[in-house]
C-alpha cells in the first residue's frame, strides 16, 4: 500500500481501553434511555488501573450476555471512580470584571445590554483549571494536563475543544478578557509541542485527530487587539509545525486540472481505524452492517475523520445522503478545510512580517497564492456561484494525483459552500461577492432564525434544520468585510436573526445552546448522537462578537 492508503494508528492508553469496556457494560446494564457513552470515558480512577480492572472482572454476571446488575454496577462506579469533571476545577478568570470598560459600546437597548452582561458573565461558569492530580498521576485520568486555565464549551463537553476555541476567543476579546484568550492559545501551543498538532480536544481519546485548524487565526485576532509581539514569537514555531501537519503525505491530495496544472489541497484524515472511544457502543452498532474487518476499519476511519472535520455528522460526508454507512470523509476534499489552511497561510505571512521574518512571510504568501488557485480550479463553480466539495474517484485516493472532473463536485447546498467569503482574497472581489451573494440568497439556507447547515433533514446534527454559531459568524463576517452596501445589510440581517434566537432561547430556557433550529426563532437544535447541550462557548462568543460589531439600537425589538 502507498503511504496515502495506509492508516497510521496513534495508540490509545490502557485506561481508555478499559473505560470502553465499562461503557459497554453500562449500556447493557442501564439501557439506552439517558445513556451517554462519553460519560464513561471521562471518569477518573480513584485507585490504580490493575486494582480497578480486577474489581470489574470480579463483578457477578448473569445470563447469556453476562449482564451486571444495576446495583452492583452503580456501587462499583461509586467505589472506584471520581465523577466525570472532578479533575477540572472551577476557576475565576483573572481578567473578568462584571462590566468591562468600553464593553459593547454600540448596544444601546437596556434589555439587550443587561442580557449581554449575563452572557459575558457565563465565562465564569465555563472557566476551569486542570487539577494538580492530573499532572501528578496522568495514568488515572483521560483528561490531559494543560499549563493554563481553560474555557470549556459546556455540559458534556468538559474539556478544551480546538475549533470552538476560536469563537470563544472572539467573544473573550469583546469581553476584554485578553489574558484568558492568550491562556487558551498557550494551551494549544503546548498541544502542538507535545503531539505535533492541536488535538480535537484535551482527552487521551482525542490524540488521533485534530479539528478545523484555526490556531493562527486565534493568534492573529489577539495580536490585532493587543499588539503582543511576544505571543506571536511564542506561537510562530507551533503555527509552522501545524501547517506542515496539514500538508503532510496523509492529508495532501494532488488534483490535475484540464490544462495539466497540478493543485495541492488537503483533506481530513484521522489516525484511527477503530470505534471512537467516546462513542464506541454507537460506532460498533453502525458498523455492524459491514461483514469484513477491513470494511469496518475503513468505516471507523471515515467516522473519526468526520469528527476531525468538526461536522460530525453530516450528509456532506456520505456518498448516499440517506445511508450513514456510505460515509467517506477521507475521499472528499472539503472547501472549508482548505479555506482554513489558506487563512493559516495568510495569517502566518502577516505574523511572520510582524516579527521581521521576511523569508517566511514571502514563502507563505506564495503558498497562499497556490492554494487560492487550487480552490478556484477544483471547488469553484461559476454557474452555481458556489464552491463545492470535491469527491475523489474510487473511494480513498491511493494514487499520487487524480484528474479533475466536473461531475465530482458535490452540488448539494451546504453552508460550507460559502465559507470562502470569509477570506479577504475572495471578499475583496466585488463582482465575485455579488455572484456568490445572489446564489446564497436563493440557496434556501437563509431562514427566520439564521443560516441552516444544509437543505437535507437527515437527523444528523450538522444538517437541516440546525444552525451553528461558527457558520453564521464566518459568512456574516465575510459579507460584512466585502464593504458592499447590500452585503453589509444582508450580514446585519442574519446577525440580528441569530442574536434574537439566542436571546429568546435564553429567556425561555435560562441557557445558551450549542446549536439552534433555524426554522423557529428561540428553539434549540437537535438530532445527532447526544442530547442538545447548553453553556455554550462558541454560541456565547458569536453573540458577543455580533453585538460588538453591529450593536443594538435603543428602539429595535429583541423578541422574535
Ligand atoms: O462525542 C461526540 C463528538 O463530540 C464532539 O463534537 C461536537 O462537539 C464539539 C464541541 O462543541 C464540536 O467541536 C464539534 O463540532 C461537535 O460536532 C467532538 O468534537 C467529536 O470528536 C466527538 O466524537
From TrEMBL:
Q: Which InterPro entries does the record match to this protein?
A: 6-hairpin_glycosidase_sf, 6hp_glycosidase-like_sf, Glyco_hydro_37, Glyco_hydro_37_CS
This one is known as Trehalase
Species, as recorded: Populus deltoides (Eastern poplar)
Enzyme type, top EC level: hydrolase
GO terms for MF: alpha,alpha-trehalase activity
- Entry similarity comment: Belongs to the glycosyl hydrolase 37 family.
* EC number(s) on file: 3.2.1.28
Q: Give the catalytic activity.
A: alpha,alpha-trehalose + H2O = alpha-D-glucose + beta-D-glucose
Q: Which UniProt keywords apply?
A: Glycosidase, Hydrolase, Signal
Fetch the Pfam families from UniProt. Answer: Trehalase
Q: Which GO terms describe its biological process?
A: trehalose catabolic process
